[in-house]
Design a protein that fits this description.
Mean pLDDT: 92
Radius of gyration: 21 Å
CATH architecture of the largest domain: 3-Layer(bba) Sandwich
CATH class of the largest domain: Alpha Beta
Number of domains: 3
Shape: globular
Number of helices: 12
CATH superfamily of the largest domain: FAD/NAD(P)-binding domain
Number of strands: 18
Helix content: 25-40%
Structural class: alpha/beta
Distance between the termini: 54 Å
Strand content: 25-35%
Order of helices and strands: EHEEHHEEEEHEEEEHEEEEHEEEHHHHHH
């Protein structure tokens, strides 16, 4: 049975980044990815801030497909709130290329990458982990000192070691489409129970001509409407008339970060730990940030030969200090939003559609740290205070 210093389960950008950082420090790292191609199937809208690009060594020109300056937000009754337009607020990236580049960096640093390899069993034994892997028609076993679960919202590693579960898991559906006629500088956001009950739908132009886009939506797990029904309603919007669907997209988004992301010999990171922005469902920035701390603590543990829960607790403390409050506040905002009726959403869009409010949103809005906008908005319009739970303003 082969022995490794670290085994990483999950070959997305989070698992790849962790693998790269640890292998770079000279340790034996193996990574297992259940799919046969890195970055596929596509499960992400690919809209990120510039902070995400800082984690890559690749030139932005090879990754960035489009630059986003603002958003048109549609209320259930069709009212439009337009924000931004004056500067770049986000980037649309080639997500498969992003994933591939990170995995290539990991292999360059010495990490072993195994595709079509699914973790099916794991247990702790004498201060190490025994991991069973299914690879096509055979199974194999390895030992490792440290196991890192980066295997997504339905994490096998999270279940195997009985970690807490995310608060909720959204269901998503989408597609890559062509023949669109969009303003390439703006994303389109749709609210309301007809299209995306409990969340929102999006149209993201992926090229500078506005002729191609990624479209999609999520609904909460208790939605009475089916994903297919909601997606059909989205495709009926005027922005998507006469489009051609190139490829379907689907997946799940875990919300509510785990209260514990470590045990002896085990850490969870990324979607497996629900390190996802609850207001937007975006997981790349918080996931990469947490992966940085995960790999740093892993290297410290390997150097100290200490894989105890007491030692690995430092990882949880580091990421919580950096982004834990933001994710917690996001869950408070989510609790408000998912209970809003369509009439209330219409009312709030109307209240926000004032020049001074839009200016404030453009100035302080940050897709990675949406809570930064709360107090400037309240200062401009105190009547919004009634919408904010006491847990946020205390």
């Amino acid at each position: 049975m082969k022995k490794y210093d670290v085994a990483v389960v999950g070959g997305g950008p989070i698992g790849g980044y962790v693998s790269k950082n640890i292998a770079e420090s000279g340790f034996q790292v193996t990574l297992y990815e259940e799919h046969k191609k890195i970055g596929m199937p596509l499960k992400c809208a690919g809209l990120v801030s510039s902070r995400v690009l800082d984690f890559l060594n690749t030139s932005e020109k090879e990754i960035v497909q489009n630059e986003i300056y603002g958003a048109h937000i549609y209320s259930p009754s069709g009212k439009i709130l337009t924000i931004g337009g004056d500067k770049i607020h986000a980037f649309v990236i080639n997500r498969p290329k992003f994933d591939e580049d990170i995995i290539n960096e990991a292999t360059d640093k010495g990490a072993e990458i195994h595709l079509e390899s699914k973790a099916i069993f794991a247990k702790r034994e004498d201060n190490h982990i025994k991991l069973k892997i299914s690879q096509k028609e055979k199974t194999s076993q390895i030992k490792c000192s440290l196991l890192i679960g980066a295997d997504g919202p339905h994490s096998t590693i999270r279940s195997a070691f009985r970690f807490p579960r995310p608060t909720e898991i959204l269901r998503g559906i989408g597609a890559e489409v062509t023949n669109t006629n969009l303003d390439p500088k703006f994303v389109e956001i749709f609210l309301g129970c007809n299209i995306a009950p409990g969340f929102f739908a999006w149209i993201i132009p992926v090229n500078k001509e506005g002729s191609e886009a990624r479209v999609g939506l999520c609904v909460n797990e208790h939605s009475k409407k089916s994903l297919t029904q909601c997606f059909t309603n989205l495709l009926r919007t005027k922005q998507l008339k006469n489009i051609t669907i190139k490829r379907r997209i689907g997946g799940s988004i875990p919300l509510g970060p785990l209260t514990k992301t470590f045990q002896s010999n085990v850490m969870l990171v990324g979607d497996a730990a629900a390190q996802v922005k609850p207001t937007s469902g975006g997981g790349l920035y918080p996931g990469m940030l947490c992966a940085h701390h995960c790999s740093a603590v892993a290297v410290e543990a390997l150097n100290a030969n200490d894989f105890s829960s007491r030692f690995l607790k430092k990882y949880h403390m580091l990421w919580s200090k950096k982004i834990g409050r933001e994710l917690s506040l996001g869950m408070n905002f989510r609790a408000i939003f998912k209970n809003l009726q369509d009439k209330q959403i219409d009312k709030y869009i109307e209240e926000l559609n004032e020049e001074k409010i839009i200016e404030t949103i453009c100035k302080y809005g940050d897709i990675d740290f949406p809570s930064n906008l709360v107090f400037p908005l309240i200062k401009k319009k105190p009547s919004l205070l009634k919408l904010i739970p006491s847990a946020i303003i205390n």
